[in-house]
Amino acid sequence: MKAACIQMNISLCSKQExxxxxxxxxxEAVSREAELLVFPEVFSTGFCYDRxxxxxxxxxxxTLETLRAFSREHGCILAGSMIEIREGxxxxxxKKVPSQYNLGFCIESGxxxxxxxxxxxxxxxxxxxxxxxxxxPIKLQKYGLSIGLIVCNELRYPEVARKLVLEGxxxxxxxxxxxxxxxYPWRIMSFSRAIENQLPHIACNRVGKDRYSIYxxxxxxxxxxxxxxxxxxxxxxxxxxxxxLVKAKELRQTGSILEDRRPDLY
Length: 266
Known about the structure:
The protein is α/β, with parallel strands linked by helices. The protein has one domain: Carbon-nitrogen hydrolase (Nitrilase/N-carbamoyl-D-aminoacid amidohydrolase, 4-Layer Sandwich), CATH 3.60.110.10. The protein contains seven helices and 14 strands. This is Carbon-nitrogen family hydrolase. It comes from Methanosarcina acetivorans. It holds the Pfam family CN_hydrolase. GO terms for molecular function: hydrolase activity.
């Protein structure tokens, strides 16, 4: 299976510009026979806190509709995250919950295959996003795969990836928005999640800068041994890597990491 990281610059709050950039890079990816394309975290807006209510959308909104059309046309799989409008609080609720989610999504052949709202929020995200309440892989038709979608900061919690794997994920996909000061921990943790779960990992980060940080890219694709299959530099690009699904399955069958766990002790 040929996978692609859409390592792109993100212009803060400029939805149309970002979507056009993402689709241009996606066109390049599918022209090079990519089947699974991964976008960075909140790829269409960045963390547009100043106008978050204006840029947030539902799953039937124009951003995912555009991606569905692209996926339908090219018969490909698209994954990433965006800002979603959350339904309001129930009448009489005393607790004020933010009106948005950081929504992880996966689209296959024009259909929304699944969503997973980010459960581990970081820093100021907690003021603007409600936390998701479920961790499950997204099942695809192609190759009978299940994707374990991880949204940025969730990578810091091994329990998130492990739960995805225990529920049947065949590969891990990370949509990230990692700044320069945290790129080395992110890289190490990305490798670790692959090795400790014996699964390939497609880790997609953004590039560029905004008022908050500088983003160095460094997206990569590794196998279940932690061997690098493809790696990007610091510029906007389409990173492609070939994942051998047969060998990935064989690796999981030759080890007993999951079977040898001691949940009675930890």
